[in-house]
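Lab manual, section 2.4: Encoding a predicted structure.

Procedure: take the sequence of the chain (280 residues), apply the prediction step described in section 2.3, and record the output as structure tokens. A sample record is shown.
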Amino acid sequence: MTKRVAFQGELGAYSHQACREALPEYEPMACSTFEDAIEAIRKGEAELAMLPVENSTFGRVADIHHLLPASGLHIVDEAYVRVHINLLALPGTTLDEVTSATSHSMLLGQCREFLSKHGIERITGADTAGSALLISQQDDKRNAALASELAGEIYGLDILARHIEDQSNNTTRFLIMSRTPDLSRRGNGGMKSTFIFEVRNIPAALYKAMGGFATNGINMTKLESYMVGGSFTATQFYADIDGHPDDRNVQLALDELDYFTNSMTLLGVYPAAKVPQNDS
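Recorded output:
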């Protein structure tokens, strides 16, 4: 039976690229929304989901952070994808024929220098691969798309210019989700743990809750706050740390965290992936 990995977007999206690079043995399953990708795992239509959580240029993917706690899924791995942006057009098109480029607003914002230099108008599309699909269905060489090389390959478009992003280190981090947790130690680069917690309503609760990680020498790589129950008082937090829950120093830190929180939920334990080096 073919194993599937669900992702949000059209075939050729950067999430699809992440699936191909990190899970080449899995068949990619395109889904319209993040909720659909999560539901595909719940229903058993796919074994894993590839979900973007943050980008080095634009920060966190807010929808995902709000969906993860209630998803019932578990983080079992992570992956990083260098977001190389390409100008794609109908076969036979030359660069000087292109007058507009369609893509997700984030990609349009990442190619301002190139687009301005060539006098190309920016048109906001629903997503990157969807924009490439749209261009492939038109018959106007003046219109192009900004997307991955994979999208160009899938939709039969020519690559007029490669890697035109303003920041060459633009990278997206993905979490690989499963129905069942995997708490085993694996990989060669150390382990990471992700959890959410809600602090107690006492003075300096967050400061006190974080003290155990500092005193036990644990590197906290991410800490973000969220509004809970429609309140403007942020009491729920999402955190990534280096280490495994069975490590003695992590145990001590989590014990101290427990004292200052109302709740703590472990979202996953997984091997740390290697972050791509900056382009030279």
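Check your result against the sample. Residues 9 and 191 are 29 Å apart (CA to CA).
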